[in-house]
Design a protein that fits this description.
Oligomer: heterodimer
Radius of gyration of chain A: 19 Å
CATH topology of the largest domain in chain B: Beta-Lactamase
Order of helices and strands of chain A: EHEHEEEHEHEHEEEEHEHHEE
Number of strands of chain B: 11
Number of domains of chain B: 3
Helix content of chain B: 40-55%
CATH architecture of the largest domain in chain A: 3-Layer(aba) Sandwich
Structural class of chain B: alpha+beta
Number of helices of chain A: 8
Largest sheet of chain A: 5 strands, parallel
């Protein structure tokens, strides 16, 4: 999978590219409009991460170029501007998703994977982890060929955990993933704990292994190591 | 008091005073002049009578106007004026006269002459002249009053319209201030001053706005870098203490970012950057939000009821309406008690969010202000954003507490 990251903040660019490389993506970087334009028009990518504010141009213009040249890459806008109008314009002009800075890498990963599944780039809509398998189209979860029923939120949490396997996720990151809109969550995130317990119980009852590790009561990790 | 009313009132008072003073003084001046005239008249009549006696030796008699009596041995030249009252037999009533008496010597005989003139006539004359003056002045006054009123209206109409323009002016509407020019130097000078002032205000407003936007924007990138790096540190093998510190730092960065984003959002709502072309049905959105918040309700065992009496529709950007409902719903959840309840009621011209909570009533004057917090974890902008959204969409939000804490949103009907 090839990803082009267009972002003018070098440190951000490096952090994102390091992470995505670890996730086995091939990353190319562009920190300027002109460089990004060149790369977009010459090479092919599966995913383009697009920052709107660039020193020598507007990211939305790159989006227009992408659409004009019929470039098949999926586009996720990364913007520091949390302005709804940018979001609406971006999505209207054909961006596939929109993430507001600062975002969590786990969230970015989840969005990229979701986009890839939607576009069927991976050729598969099945996410698997050992005996657990999720069909993201029908939203059916099977454990060793046994179907399991989860609530919508439980399904969302589990998918997020599996996509970000072997990564430490805070309760807040999970909660944020569940509510894209900025809900002013000021209370404790104990309900995440409740839901994870429910998921654990259901998987165990179906004969599966509990891969969810709790870290000091503040974070979670989906891992078999 | 209006400027014109003030002027007119002063004008009226001053003119009334002038009118009274002038009329009275006119009366007295005239009276004196007439009296003096009468006396001269009487003296010249005396000369005529003297002449007649000398030439014809006949004593003229015309009672009560002229009386001549021959007297003996009297000193000559004892002349005298006085007011007398004589009974008029014809009219059967007393009449006032000015009497002139003198003793003259003609052909060695002495005569006492009394000549009179009715003083009532001179009095009448003085009064009628004074009244004429009064009427003329009053007429002049009324005419000039009407003319100045008319003139003032046309002259001040430009001023009035300019004043209205300034009253209705809003910096956020990105419109130019259109002041009409008149041919009056003072007004035009005022226009110039106001235009200069406005230009400066506008410049300051724009630069402040730009600064806020740029600053907010520039803050997001470093926050993103910090957040991403902290997230990477979290992946390392950490002991509990370090883990706790990193998570705390991540959450602090998140809070800072949320605060910044909300401030930016407030600015954008203030600038009316969310144009709405369609009506948003709040009832549909409320149903969606109730589903989204489901987990949070369960967490506190809250009973949620939505009473949809009629569709509440507002011309508002759908995402903005979503933020509005998010904030109200979060507020109702965050400040609720365990096993409490939330009731949302939608009517044609009203939506109402009521929730159980703290027994104390909140201060309805400050809860909508920025950074007024119910608890230390919130950023205190939620209700400020709600209010700002309402204000920019001609909606009015109010808070009251009976059994529960209630927030009511109603449209403001403009005339």
């Amino acid at each position: 999978m090839k990803i082009l990251i267009i972002e003018d903040e070098i440190e951000l660019l490096i952090a994102i590219s390091n992470y995505l490389t670890k996730e086995n993506f091939i990353c190319e970087l562009a920190e300027k409009f002109s460089k990004a334009y060149e790369k977009i028009t010459i090479y092919e990518y599966d995913i383009i991460l697009l920052d709107i504010t660039l020193p020598d141009g507007n990211g939305l213009d790159l989006l227009k170029t992408i659409k004009k040249h019929n470039i098949k890459a999926g586009v996720i806008i990364l913007s520091a501007k949390n302005s709804l109008d940018d979001k609406i314009v971006g999505l209207d002009q054909g961006a596939d998703d929109y993430l507001t800075k600062p975002f969590q890498l786990s969230e970015l990963n989840s969005r990229i994977k979701a986009l890839l599944r939607r576009r069927n780039f991976a050729g598969s809509n099945i996410v698997t982890f050992n005996e657990i398998s999720i069909n993201t189209d029908s939203k059916i979860l099977t454990i060793s060929d046994q179907q399991l029923t989860l609530t919508k939120k439980e399904y969302d949490i589990l998918l997020f955990l599996i996509i970000n396997q072997n990564r430490v996720l805070t309760k807040e990151a999970i909660a944020e993933h569940l509510w894209e809109d900025n809900i002013d969550l000021t209370d404790t995130y104990d309900f995440i704990y409740t839901h994870l317990n429910n998921i654990r119980k259901k998987i165990k009852q179906a004969g599966g292994t509990d891969y969810i590790k709790t870290l000091y009561g503040m974070g979670y990790k989906f891992t078999d190591q | 008091m209006k400027f014109l009313t003030k002027i007119n009132r002063n004008y009226l008072l001053l003119f009334s005073a002038i009118l009274i003073v002038l009329s009275f003084s006119g009366y007295f001046i005239l009276k004196t002049i007439i009296l003096k005239n009468t006396k001269e008249n009487l003296i010249s009549q005396e000369a005529l009578i003297e002449k007649q006696i000398a030439e014809t030796n006949r004593i003229p008699e015309l009672k009560p106007l002229i009386e001549v009596v021959q007297v003996s041995g009297q000193p000559v030249g004892h002349l005298e004026f006085k007011d007398v009252r004589i009974f008029n037999r014809n009219e059967n009533e007393p009449e006032d006269f000015t009497e002139y008496s003198n003793i003259i010597k003609v052909n060695d005989s002495y005569y006492l002459i009394k000549i009179r003139e009715a003083s009532i006539e001179s009095e009448d004359l003085a009064i009628s002249i004074a009244v004429t003056i009064f009427i003329l002045l009053l007429g002049a006054f009324i005419i000039s009053y009407i003319i100045t009123r008319r003139l003032n209206k046309t002259i001040w109409s430009i001023f009035e319209s300019n004043l209205k323009e300034i009253e209705n002016f809003d910096l956020r509407e990105h419109k130019e201030l259109q002041l009409r020019s008149s041919n009056i130097e003072e007004f035009d000078r005022l226009n110039i001053v106001i235009n200069n002032l406005m230009a400066k205000l506008k410049k300051d407003f724009l630069s402040l706005k730009e600064f806020t936007e740029n600053a907010s924007h520039e803050i997001q990138s470093p926050l993103a870098i910090a957040s991403l790096n902290l997230e990477e540190i979290l992946q390392l093998k950490l002991d509990e203490e370090s883990f706790r510190k990193v998570v705390t730092a991540i959450n602090a960065v998140k809070r800072l970012s949320a605060l910044n984003q909300n401030l930016l959002l407030l600015t954008k709502i203030e600038n009316n950057q969310f144009a709405a072309s369609d009506f948003t049905s709040f009832n549909e959105l409320i149903k969606i939000k109730i589903q989204e918040f489901d987990l949070l309700f369960k967490e506190k065992d809250l009973r949620i009821s939505f009473i949809s009496k009629s569709d509440f529709r507002v011309k508002m950007n759908m995402h903005l309406a979503g933020i509005l409902l998010n904030n109200l719903m979060s507020n109702a959840v965050n400040h609720n008690i365990n096993n409490g309840s939330i009731t949302v009621t939608a009517e044609q011209n009203e939506i109402k969010f009521c929730n159980t909570g703290d027994a104390n009533e909140l201060n309805d004057e400050t809860i909508f202000n920025r950074f007024v917090k119910g608890n230390s974890k919130s950023h205190g902008l939620g209700l400020a954003i709600v209010k700002q959204i309402c204000e920019s969409h001609d909606l009015e939000i109010s808070y009251h507490k009976n059994e529960q804490h209630c927030f009511v949103i109603k449209p403001i009907f403009k005339n």
